[in-house]
Amino acid sequence: MKSVVIREPGVLTIESRPLPEPMAGEVRIKVQYASICGSDVHIWHGYNPFARYPRVIGHEFFGVIDMLGAGIDSKRLGDKVSVDPVVSCGHCYPCSVGRPNVCTELQVIGVHRDGGFSEYVCVPAVNAYSIPESIPDKLASLVEPFTIAANICAFVKPMHQDVALIYGAGPIGLTVIQVLKKVYGVSQVIVADRLTERLAIARDNGADVMLDNSEILLADQLRGIRPTLIIDAACHPSILAEAIGLASPAARIGLLGFSGEPSIITQQSITSKEISLFTSRLNSHRFPTVIDWLDRGLIEPEKLVTHYLPLSQVEKAMTIFENDPRGCCKVILSIGQ
Ligand code: NAI
Ligand code: MN
Ligand code: ZN
């Protein structure tokens, strides 16, 4: 089988590898479609602190179960599935309180173990979620990025009367915009980005107000509007202090970033307005929720997709994805049909 392997930081190859065999509790998936995420590019360049090399990348993928490990119900053979990349131990403290995404032994498929940019991959059967016929195959890998939005929203609990401000109209900001508007019915969703093309795609994804903050401060553009819910999907460490300043008293702020640089804030700025800060990493069992949203047509994953390319062009696909944020958003790789 063909697999996209990062041999070491900077070295991407398409290798021929032997077909893997599922262990007990696992299923083998014949992968059909996979989508490119920023973290795939980070592993390629050596910027992901969790990655070990060589590594088959890819944590957003969809395919058909074609082989079962011991103990798996034979009914699962032939299932069309999307895979939750969060593999957890099931018994540590975070797992015991329903937070497997921060399991003390967390393994992310495509990061800590081999992923889905491959013709075949073995994963724990519990991570493979059946996809109903209503969801097009070529969009089914996009369940995962929407689980990022679902997870942060489960913390911040969006309400109809919220005035939401989203920093960043990349793939993650766009999934958040869609979920706020289309699932939670938030009345006003404002998005800030520095790229006009990204603001245009944010409008298409449902944002009500688009603000370009490349030159004019957001405070000057908001003219006294105080967001009650802010989500940082741009993730520069300077954003938190600005967000706190802009926020309404009693606002909730959701953070998604992994920067190692400090964000400088004061206790006074958050406590005087009694602001709630939430962070969110990956997802905790949100696949069923997002699959249900897709099945009901509530969210529109196609609005994120700008490119479809075959697996053989993965390096070109990742290069466009990285270097052309104005023209490229989500890229779907077709791997096998
Ligand atoms: P992206 O780089 O495609 O999008 C970021 C967007 O923010 C870009 O459009 C950029 O122009 C804009 N931006 C940058 N600085 C800005 C600023 N100061 N104000 C307004 N907009 C600004 O990235 P993507 O894939 O959408 O991911 C966004 C962030 O979310 C990344 O930092 C990533 O690490 C993080 N992330 C976190 C996850 C989690 O589970 N916590 C999961 C996936 C991504
Ligand atoms: Mn992703
Ligand atoms: Zn655990």
Summarize the structure.
The chain is of the alpha/beta class and 337 residues long. It has helices at 38-45, 93-96, 143-156, 171-183, 196-204, 218-222, 239-246, 267-271, 287-295, 314-323, and strands spanning 2-8, 11-16, 26-35, 55-56, 61-68, 80-83, 86-87, 107-108, 120-124, 128-130, 163-167, 188-193, 209-212, 229-232, 252-255, 276-279, 305-310, 330-334.
What small ligands are held by the chains?
1,4-dihydronicotinamide adenine dinucleotide, manganese (II) ion, zinc ion
CATH homologous superfamily of the largest domain? Medium-chain alcohol dehydrogenases, catalytic domain
Distinct helical segment count? 10
Q: What percentage of residues falls in helices of 4 or more residues? A: 25-40%
Number of strands: 18
CATH architect. name of the largest domain: Alpha-Beta Complex
Ranges where pLDDT stays below 50 over 5 or more residues in a row are none
